[in-house]
Amino acid sequence: MQVINIYKAAGILIKDKKLLVEKSVGKEFFIAPGGSIEVDETPKQSLVRELQEEFQVETKIEDFEEFGTFTAEAAGQTGKIVQMNVFIVKNWVGEPTPDHEVEQILWTDSNIPPDIKVGSIFEHEVIPRLKTANLIS
Fold first, then answer.
1. Which terminus of the chain, N or C, has less C-beta within 10 A?
2. Distance (Å, whole) CA 37 – CA 6
3. If you write DSSP's letter for every residue of 18-63 in order, what string do you get?
4. Spatial distance between the Cα atoms of 64 and 100, rounded to a whole number of angstroms
5. Known CDD domains for this protein (predicted)?
6. What is the CA angle 28-75-34, rounded to 5?
7. Residue closest to 9 by CA, chosen among 58, 66, 57, 55
8. CB neighbours of 65 closer than 8 A, spacing ≥ 6?
9. From CA 19, how far away is CA 3, in angstroms rounded?
């Protein structure tokens, strides 16, 4: 049985059949918007907080549709296992703008540029499912 070291909530924001990914300051991998779940939070509460802090985007728990829970080695953290609750964000207010720890954002389709590294859960699980469901190009 794997020991889970990190618990995260992530949001799938889609615009014009492209998915929003972000890179935090000092990190090499692009990951989904979201972050660590605090002790007193549900995954959805965490996602509301993280989207506000990191992207200046307002959401409501009712705007989230469960996409899946995934477990994998954390991107760029050898030996650390992350469990990620992933939600499709059906509605948000505001234009995603990098803030707080976020250095760069990118709207991408399933054809990720070769010089962009995406976290494993999104690369191997989420993006292929979004493409198959025709939610992204």
1. N
2. 9
3. EEEEEEETT--EEB-SEEEPPTT--HHHHHHHHHHHHH--B--GGG
4. 23
5. NUDIX_Hydrolase (cd04690)
6. 90
7. 66
8. 87, 88, 90
9. 30
Q: What is the separation, in whole angstroms, between the first and last Cα of the chain?
A: 36
Listed as ranges, residues in the chain with pLDDT below 50 are none
Residue (of 98, 91, 100, 124) closest to 36 by Cα position: 100
- 């992933």: which residue's tokens? 86
Torsion of CA 109, 112, 117, 120, to 10 degrees: 60
Closest by CA position to 63, among listed 90, 95, 96, 32: 90
Torsion sign (Cα): 74, 10, 30, 120: positive
Predicted pLDDT of residue 1: 63
At 72, which amino acid appears?
A
Find tokens 């660590």 and name the residue. Answer: 36
Cα–Cα distance for residue pair 65/92, rounded to 1 Å: 13
Write the CB contacts of 96 (distance below 8 Å, at least 6 apart in sequence).
Answer: 13, 20, 33, 55, 56, 57, 105
